[in-house]
Design a protein that fits this description.
The chain has helices at 15-27, 61-80; strands at residues 2-6, 9-13, 32-43, 46-55, 84-94. With 95 residues, the protein is an alpha+beta fold. Helix 1 crosses helix 2 (61-80).
């Protein structure tokens, strides 16, 4: 469970829910063929997301990673209201 306090009280979100949100968003992104693993943890009141994915061979990996990072951060802020410190994307394989 990840707990974030704000002026309204405490927000409790399960890690499983955060990972499922990230997985759903990443699987629909151009240039990503498969999601390998996802991790979410709390760091100084914000969430840090780590994603390992398999990329398509014909894409600009830095551009796809940047787009995915922004989409994931927006999705988490929109759905949970939790601040996102960073979204790190690792190219596990290119297939």
């Amino acid at each position: 469970m990840i707990e974030i306090g704000n002026h309204l009280g405490t927000i409790t979100v399960s890690k499983k829910y955060l990972v499922s949100l990230v997985a759903a968003k990443v699987q629909n992104c151009f240039g990503i063929t498969r999601l390998v693993r996802t991790d979410a943890k709390l760091s100084d009141g914000a969430v840090v997301i780590k994603i390992s994915a398999v990329f398509s061979p014909d894409v600009n990996i830095p551009a796809v990673a940047d787009a995915v990072s922004h989409k994931v951060a927006y999705e988490l802020i929109d759905k949970t209201g939790i601040d996102v410190r960073s979204v790190e994307i690792f190219a596990d394989e290119i297939v």
